[in-house]
């Protein structure tokens, strides 16, 4: 009998103890703790995380006081791993499969999942506390049994996690784990926004506000769609080089334009405004500036940034009447189970660039240093490898030496 099958029989119905980085106080360093991960229930999958990456959304919620998230909690949502065990009624993945987690479910049955007009699953809505079907958590402190809250139904800052089957995407072998996890959120969001939400046409003009991972992925997606002019806007001059490698044709640093506003500069460069503007920061003032940078008559502004406040976005009504529009998007309009495998194949076919986004790689225990890099704007994506995962490659569950099953 294969070792993986033996592992499943030994642990599938039992809790597993492993290490997790727990957020106990908003904005304070995460604490490495031994936690207990319950076995998967019906429609759930327990995954051994190979590597996880840090997203600005993690930083936003790490800083956020109150609920969500509740503390203590295990953050993280961009990850690649291997299925360790499955609960009842799970048929689309099996033990040993390589999967990526996604914060957005695709149940396949609700009106939104069966429609081409939406990717927001109404059967298992995003953002609910706990597991999506029953609101409970699968994590607890090993020493005390105190529950630990999960995050976006994923919680990838742990060696093992439990995820609803609607929030895992099976990938064919060949995509390295450190590249696969980028498809969990940021890169997919940016490319999807260009392809599906904006549906950028060949010859279009584009302005991208914020050249983090999402903004750079937007630029790449717009280039692939044939946009003629792609203007990147960022306060960090170091983003110019990588931006141009991924599709940016022009770069604006707001600190270098004197008394002019960014929208005035964009209008001068495009002869009236960009056809498409993308806000990738999460600032309501930048959202308004992006809108003002769009062309009268048909300009479309796509909001992708996650704001950490409740300030409203202010748009003059007469500008809406003149044909401009604003649309928001989660996960770039992509349906995870349908579209993520397509992006993975495009990476293998060298049509989608992922390597440029990985600027740092560290061990899981260095997670607080990785947070600091992201907060300081010194990295795009930092990959955190679980113990032994990088050395062993995309290993099966039988190599999970960091965990121990509870008898």
TrEMBL record:
Annotated Alcohol dehydrogenase-like C-terminal domain residues: 213-337
Catalytic reactions on record: a secondary alcohol + NAD(+) = a ketone + NADH + H(+); a primary alcohol + NAD(+) = an aldehyde + NADH + H(+)
GO cellular component annotations of the record: cytosol
Protein name: Alcohol dehydrogenase-like 7
One Pfam family cited in the UniProt record for this chain: ADH_N
Boundaries of every Alcohol dehydrogenase-like N-terminal domain copy: 42-171
Subunit-level organization: Homodimer.
Localisation per UniProt entry: Cytoplasm
Family affiliation: Belongs to the zinc-containing alcohol dehydrogenase family. Class-III subfamily.
Lineage: Eukaryota, Viridiplantae, Streptophyta, Embryophyta, Tracheophyta
UniProtKB keywords: Metal-binding, NAD, Oxidoreductase, Zinc
Cofactors: Zn(2+)
Source species of the chain: Triticum urartu
Principal place of residence: cytoplasm
GO biological process: formaldehyde catabolic process
GO MF annotations, alphabetized: alcohol dehydrogenase (NAD+) activity; S-(hydroxymethyl)glutathione dehydrogenase [NAD(P)+] activity; zinc ion binding
